[in-house]
Predict the 3D structure of the following.
Amino acid sequence: MDLELKDRVAIVTGGGMGIGKDVARLLSQEGCKVVICARRMSYLNEAAKEIATETGNEVLPLFCDTTDMKAVQFMVDQAVQHFGRIDILVNGAAAPSGVVRNDIEHAEDHELLGDLDTKVIGYFRCIKAVTPYMKKAGFGRVINIGGLTGRGSKVMSGMRNLAIAHLTKTLSDQLGPSGITVNLIHPGVVDTPHIQELYEREGIKQNKTPEQVRQGYIDSTPIRRTLAPIEMGYLIGFLASPKAGAITGESIGIDGGLTRGIFI
């Protein structure tokens, strides 16, 4: 199926590694001109070179701190100056699993504020910056990357993902008349460079080895495996396409069936 993404312009925040990198790869494979942005230019430059060499399509690495509205606006304006338009925004810049991982007695308010500033308000800033360009074109696709902690009470940082669900639904109502869709995906246990840290933290809490923790997730997942980052790209690629124009305001789990809820 042709996703009709050739020559579309996409921004992927957090695109230097992990899920963001493979999302950028998939979009580039489909013919998009891709901007990847984050705070660590070394990762961005390496990812841009790797993806462009593989796909033959241009990938532009740009520095951006999404906690700074001026930096976000500058990044978006640079992208438009270079490529002439913005069709797709994938919001993925955030600390994996959040910064607040302790119980309330040991959690700090500044850590929680940092989590919200990066993942919730950071997403808001990026959407705000691209909206005028998408409205002018009469087309836009915004895909926010959340997490399964938004559907449960495992860690306090999960409130970020629940807040993003509300942001997604609210903005889908506001932007829909302009041809802009806004959706959210909740990834499950994905094999990224950061996942080993999760296994180690959980192992300490559960008095298990990291491998035992990993196996526990696998055993709890109906498809009996962890997920590959590129699988997030497959879903996002479809949501970013003109073919997904009737899908908006949705929170979609891509977790191998790990979430047991029916309607959430």
Summary: The chain is about 45% helix and 15% strand.
